[in-house]
């Protein structure tokens, strides 16, 4: 095999292996860890939405506002972000099930019920 082809093959493998690891980490067989996801929500998401979800760089995320969206729409936003805004997609770090858990948590078990709380 020519040297150029070997280098190209190595580059492809170097790119594909991390992608495969990310896909495996977010596979449907991965268990949902509510404690980890709640920490992620209130700390990592809180870095933009506020540690109490009252807003900051990103908008406030009270339960009543989250209920205006379907669980599917909210899951999609969490995984894929909102183009043209500071909201990134978390698909590389969260499986569909994990994003769905976060969406449902924001809609039903959110510490911030309304902005009046």
The structure class reads: mainly alpha
Strand content: under 5%
Quote the distance from N terminus to C terminus. Answer: 67 Å
Oligomer: single chain
Give, in order, the helices and strands. HHHHH
What gross morphology would you assign? globular
- Please give the largest β-sheet: none
- Number of E-type strands: 0
Residue-averaged pLDDT: 83
Radius of gyration: 18 Å
| Low-pLDDT ranges | 4-27
Helix content estimate: 55-70%
Question: Describe it for me?
Answer:
With 117 residues, this protein is mainly α. It is 56% helix and 0% strand. The chain contains 5 helices and no strands. It has helices at 3-25, 34-49, 63-66, 71-80, 96-108. Helix 2 packs across helix 5 (96-108) and helix 4 packs across helix 5. The longest helix is centred in the first third of the chain and has 23 residues, at 3-25.
What are the SSEs and their pairings?
Layout: H1 3-25, H2 34-49, H3 63-66, H4 71-80, H5 96-108
Helix pairs in contact: 2-5, 4-5
Descriptive tags:
117 residues; mainly alpha; single chain
In short:
With 117 residues, this protein is mainly α. The protein has helices at 3-25, 34-49, 63-66, 71-80, 96-108.
């Amino acid at each position: 095999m020519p040297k150029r082809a070997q280098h190209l093959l190595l580059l492809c493998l170097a790119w594909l292996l991390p992608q495969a690891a990310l896909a495996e980490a977010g596979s449907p067989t991965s268990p949902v860890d509510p404690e980890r996801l709640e920490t992620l929500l209130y700390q990592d998401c809180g870095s933009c939405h506020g540690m109490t979800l009252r807003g900051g760089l990103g908008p406030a995320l009270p339960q009543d506002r989250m209920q205006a969206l379907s669980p599917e729409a909210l899951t999609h936003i969490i995984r894929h972000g909102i183009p043209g805004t500071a909201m990134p997609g978390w698909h590389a770090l969260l499986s569909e099930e994990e994003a769905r858990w976060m969406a449902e948590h924001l809609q039903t078990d959110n510490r911030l019920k309304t902005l009046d709380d």
